[in-house]
């Protein structure tokens, strides 16, 4: 009987995820660009950002955007390294570095979003 | 006088991969649209993840309040930064459109027409790039014309 004896992780899950997150990021990116450039002020003044961040759904979208982009980007970098036959120590160094960098910057991004205050008098959240 | 058979002469013309000069060997490969798409997808991808780090860093003054953030944004809305932003959009465009092309190739039988898709993504990309330029530099364009 056939028994699969290859590596447990063939990378097929990451392959599918890379495509799904990629397509999702295209949708997010269209929204991001319309919002940031349709009116120059909308993305570039504190007041505009503060007003937008009063809506919790908007924060959720931003948190998802950071997470997806970070996963897609760092998984992409890891895919480049996987094209080369790395020594075991190099493999683990690279992946540790990518995970640490990814977590650090994702948490930093989350912190920035959470640091923006909710104004008391505004309804909608 | 020695007469060489045809097969003998062609045999000596076969080039094997020169390991020592692997960079120039790779560069000398004939590249079709697929190879270029692969190279550019990597280059733009690396640039974009680099920019994402930079983007989080550049938005960090949001934690310091209104004055700090608006001061920082003033530098980013200056013309040199806007031109950089415009070219960043070119990178985003290529990576997005080529990414869609990859998904079509993988999941929708696009392997049969991937070269046409590559050309199409350049056409769409250039139109959107120029459109974005017109939108971003509308004020400057008005003062010129």
Name its key features:
heterodimer, A: 125 residues, 5 helices, B: 145 residues, mainly alpha, elongated
Summarize the structure.
By secondary structure, chain A is mainly alpha-helical. Chain A contains five helices and no strands. In chain A, about 75% of the residues lie in helices and about 0% in strands.
Give a description of the structure.
The complex is a heterodimer of chains A (125) and B (145). Chain A is mostly helical and 125 residues long. Chain A has 5 helices and no strands. Chain A has helices at residues 12-37, 40-44, 46-52, 56-82, 88-115. The radius of gyration of chain A is 19 Å and the shape is elongated. Chain B has helices spanning 6-13, 22-27, 33-59, 66-76, 79-107, 114-136, 138-144. The termini of chain B are far apart. By secondary structure, chain B is an all-alpha fold. Chain B is 77% helix and 0% strand.
Q: What do the pLDDT scores of chain A average to?
A: 86
Shape of chain B: elongated
- Assembly annotation: heterodimer
Net shape of chain A: elongated
End-to-end Cα distance of chain B: 76 Å
The number of helical segments of chain A is 5
User: Number of helical runs of chain B?
Assistant: 7
Set down the secondary structure blueprint.
The complex is a heterodimer of chains A (125) and B (145).
Chain A: H1 12-37, H2 40-44, H3 46-52, H4 56-82, H5 88-115
Helix pairs in contact in A: 1-4, 4-5
Chain B: H1 6-13, H2 22-27, H3 33-59, H4 66-76, H5 79-107, H6 114-136, H7 138-144
């Amino acid at each position: 009987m056939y028994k699969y004896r290859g590596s447990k992780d063939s990378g097929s899950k990451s392959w599918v995820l890379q495509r799904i997150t990629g397509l999702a990021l295209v949708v997010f990116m269209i929204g991001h660009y319309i919002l940031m450039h349709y009116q120059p002020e909308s993305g570039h003044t504190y007041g505009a950002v503060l007003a937008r961040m009063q809506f919790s759904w908007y924060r959720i979208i931003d948190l998802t955007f950071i997470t997806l982009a970070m996963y897609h980007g760092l998984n992409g970098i890891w895919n480049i390294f996987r094209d080369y036959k790395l020594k075991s120590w190099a493999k683990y160094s690279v992946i540790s570095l990518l995970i640490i960098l990814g977590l650090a910057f994702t948490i930093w991004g989350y912190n920035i979003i959470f640091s923006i205050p909710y104004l008391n008098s505004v309804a909608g959240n | 006088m020695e007469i060489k058979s045809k097969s003998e002469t062609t045999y000596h013309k076969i080039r094997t991969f020169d390991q020592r000069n692997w960079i120039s060997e790779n560069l000398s490969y004939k590249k079709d649209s697929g190879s270029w798409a692969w190279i550019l997808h990597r280059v733009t991808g690396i640039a974009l993840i680099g920019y994402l780090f930079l983007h989080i860093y550049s938005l960090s003054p949001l934690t310091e309040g209104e004055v700090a953030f608006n001061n920082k944004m003033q530098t980013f809305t200056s013309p040199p930064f806007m031109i950089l932003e415009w070219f960043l959009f070119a990178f985003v465009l290529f990576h997005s459109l080529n990414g869609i092309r990859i998904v079509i190739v993988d999941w929708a039988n696009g392997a049969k027409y991937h070269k046409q898709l590559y050309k199409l993504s350049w056409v769409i990309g250039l139109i959107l790039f120029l459109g974005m330029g017109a939108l971003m530099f509308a004020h400057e364009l008005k003062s010129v014309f």
